[in-house]
Amino acid sequence: MKYRIAMAAILALTMQAASAQDKPAAAVPAGQKDATTLEFEKFRTQMEQEGNPAELFELQGEEFWKAKRGPKNVALTASCDLGLGVGVVKGAYVQMPRYFADAGKVMDAERRIVWCMVEKQGYKFDDLARRPFAGDNYTPEQTSLVTYVAAQSANMKFAVPLKDPHVREVYEIGKEVVAYRAGPYDFSCNTCHGADGKRIRMQNLPNLGTPQGALSAVLGWPGYRMTGSVMLTHQWRMSDCFRQQRFPQPKYASDTITALLTYMTANANGHMYKGLGIKR
Amino acid sequence: MNVTRRNILKHLGTGGALAALVVSGLMRPIAAFAGQWSKPSFESKDMAAAMKNLDAAAAVDSKDIVLTAPAIAENGAVVPVSVVSNIPNTTRISILVEKNPFPLAGSFEMTEGALPDVGVRLKFSQTSNVRAVVFAGGKAYMTQKEVKVTAGGCGG
Amino acid sequence: MASYPIRIRALLKGDVTSITAIVSHPMETGLRKDDAGKTIPPQYIQVLTVELNGKKVMESHLNTAVSTNPVFNFKIKGAKLGDKIVVNWVDNTGEKGSGETTVIPG
Description:
The complex is a heterotrimer.
Chain A: H1 2-15, H2 35-50, H3 54-66, E1 68-69, E2 74-75, E3 98-100, E4 105-107, H4 109-119, H5 125-130, H6 141-151, E5 156-157, H7 165-179, H8 189-193, E6 198-200, E7 203-205, H9 211-218, E8 220-225, E9 230-232, H10 234-244, H11 255-267, E10 272-273, E11 276-279
Parallel strand pairs in A: 8-11
Antiparallel strand pairs in A: 1-2, 3-4, 5-10, 6-7, 8-9
Chain B: H1 3-11, H2 16-23, H3 39-42, H4 47-53, E1 60-61, E2 65-68, E3 72-73, E4 79-85, E5 90-97, E6 104-110, E7 114-122, E8 128-136, E9 139-149
Chain C: E1 6-13, E2 16-23, E3 45-52, E4 55-62, E5 71-77, E6 84-91, E7 96-102, E8 104-105
Parallel strand pairs in C: 1-8
Antiparallel strand pairs in C: 1-2, 2-5, 3-4, 3-6, 6-7
């Protein structure tokens, strides 16, 4: 079953799938969008503006952020520094990943929040990592927290501090990870995301090496996924890309994921983050 | 629809509490719409039966209803549908999805200043016509359009 | 989520107030099966009302076709800044929820 899905994915990539459509997709030149894609984007944007269920998770996340919680009974708002000072959430999301001296690491938003939950509130990392992403009737607390924090950066520009040599180094690692070919199908991220005009069935695949492609891959996260009605973070998206490449699943909140997020987000620097997304 | 009875009910000061009573079966509904969730309409299994149970079997096509829905939906589980009625004295808007197991998706009754302008997101079990039925001045009007529902895609 | 969070916005522009209600609700159709193959019983909002300063302005009757975590967009006339908007709902199992907000500039 697994292999059949993989083959279908490969075929879809090479054949520029034209399955359930009236018009063949192959006629669409690189960098341009066909009518179906435009229709999807139009209504998705409309739904994001006219009411996004992601806001329900934002509400939940705000409660978690402000309440005294965990074995140490501490509130994140009184203890967690997302880079702009303890408790400051406005603008924090678009300026991560960044280097955190107290942790000695470059961290993306989700990783930083998890770090705060462990270090400040006393939660156990292994507990948080056991089931780190949303599923049927289940949303991890850190997902709601990331959603709340991200929503406070809506309509602000991405500004990953690339001038910081720590961040720069991780960015360069991210670039390598994106190009690293391995696994049973000898895939890299770039196999699907390294050139313009690729798609998998109905989904356009952004070219992560271009600012516009990087932007479309970072916009809309964290996002409310219509399939399954779940709230998912950018960490989840990265993790799932590894699964789709048939790589071993990366460790939750690991350096590799941060490196990928640093590379992608910094490539979108200067562009506007539109806030919580809606995903297919 | 019996407008008089509905108005009387309105004057009795109906609201969420009455709706709750009706839904939990403690009280028999006494009006055509207000307070009553119409089981026959909502459990109708095809368009013709649903229209009949809505008292809309004689609905005529109208260009004064603006029905907005995607021509092709990214996800059949969440299809945004909105209806604006430009027909004077519109009191109710119903939305039906023809190919769903139960076509009637919802009815919206405007009172006391609500405009005949509603948006909702609906599940489509498959490619189907979506129909807006507008009730105004004791008559029913309608318009419809097709929404294609596709499968496919495993990305986010 | 243990309760049913609800988020409501009421934005006044000109003399029209746009109301958005986002409700946390499963909207189960009764047609789905769980992992064990057991049918998940239906649970869906049947009646949802909007009140302006305590007076009902909109009553919606809904079916299982409404999407999970439903979003509603309504428009009303005659509301002023600071007016109170309340949204109430009740589902087929008798569960209820409500939320309120005040009208702000849009």
